[in-house]
Amino acid sequence: MREALDRLPPAMTVAEFLDWPGDGSGRRFQLVNGELRAMSPASRAHGAIQTTLSRLIGNHLVETGSRYDVIGGPGVITGTLSHINMRIPDLGISSTADAPGQRALPDPIVLIEILSPSNASDTWDNVWAYTTIPSAREIAVVHSTRVLTEVLRRSPDGTWPQETEKVEREGALRLHSIGFACSMPDIYARTHLA
What is the pTM of this model? Predict the structure, then answer.
C-alpha cells in the first residue's frame, strides 16, 4: 500500500489527472485542489439509493421527453480552481449532448451526492465546490443511513442558501429544474431503511 502511495504524483492538473493511468490498485479517485483523493467503495445502501434515483430520474426524463440526461459518477469541473479540480458526484444531470472525447460532464444543472458516514466530510466539501459551477441550479445530498435528503437551490439572483432544505420520510424530493418529484419512500425502497 505504501509503495502505491509513493507512486502518486504530488499535485496535478485536470489534464494530467485525465491522462493518469491510476495507481494500479483499482481504486477510484477524484482531483481536489490538485491532490488525488481516493474514493471508498459504496455500501450496499449507498449503491441501491444511487441506482434507484438514477432509474427514477431517468424514467422521468424519458417519459417527459426532456432534453436532459442523468449520468452516473460523472467528472465535473468546479468553477473555482477549475484547472486542478475534478470532483465525482454520484449523479449529474445535464442537457449537453454526448460528444467524442468528452471526459467531464459539461454544464451540469443538478448534482446528487449519496452521503455515507465514512465520507461525510469529503461529500460536503464537494457540495460546496459544486456551488461554484455556473450551470448548477440544484444540489441534493441523500443520506444512506437514515431517510433524509438535503437540497440546496440557487436563487434567481445566483446566490445559494446558507442552510439546506431538509426532506424527511413523509416528504418528497423535488428537483424543480427538471420538473422531477418522487416520494422519499420510493428512493429508499431497495434498502433496509424502507
Answer: 0.93
Q: Is 32 part of a structural domain of the chain?
A: no
Q: How far apart are alpha carbons 23 and 38 in whole angstroms?
A: 10
The residue with cell 490538485 is 34
Residue 77, domain extent: 42-187
pLDDT score, position 2 = 44
Cell numbers that stand for 53 in this block: 434515483
Q: Give 39's contacts (C-beta < 8 A, 6+ positions apart).
A: 27, 28, 29, 30, 88, 119
Q: How do strand 76-77 and strand 110-115 relate by DSSP bridges?
A: unpaired
- In a domain? residue 57: yes
pLDDT averaged per 10 residues, the chain (length 194): 50 94 92 94 95 98 98 96 96 96 96 94 96 98 98 97 97 98 98 95
105, 74, 102: which is closest to 88 by C-alpha?
74
d(Cα 71, Cα 54) in Å, to the nearest integer?
8
